[in-house]
Amino acid sequence: MAVRSLVVAGALFLGICIITSGMPTETTHAYCRIVWLLGLPCDQVSMALLTQIKAMGSYKLGPVTAALIQANHTSAVGQIEGVNFTMMGTAMGLGCHVEGSSVSAFWFSLFDNGTNYCNLHNVIQGSGLTKAPGFIEYTNEWLCLGMEISACK
Fold first, then answer.
1. Which candidate, 80, 104, 136, 153, has a CA 20 to 30 Å from the CA of 74?
2. For residue range 17-63, what is the model confidence (pLDDT) as tens digits?
3. Strands 68-74 and 59-64
């Protein structure tokens, strides 16, 4: 029985590591992680995301490279979230794989009613990339707390 429990626990831990790419999630803070696939080159995706972030007054742009965009978002109530977009070309360079993450800075914001989801959704939606060829979004309530109850504006 103990061996069986150990195997199950190990399998669960391995699954979590695979889902999070081996990196621990912020379980004491509200967070959201989304993966998007787009049929556009990453340089076009990056430019669209940067243009949208700059146009939104609630975001402060941080370090930017060809593969990473970092920013901080300040909500209407003063809550701060760290927002990142990581881009990597898909097989044969025919598209772009984007990982977006948003993590609340404060521990007491664990249940944020989808604020972190909206941080990412509003940028990708506002950039027009949701209408790009091949656009697909991958996430769920485990990777994006509050996504199901979010009311993005």
1. 136
2. 444 454 444 456 778 899 999 999 999 999 999 999 999 989 999 99
3. antiparallel
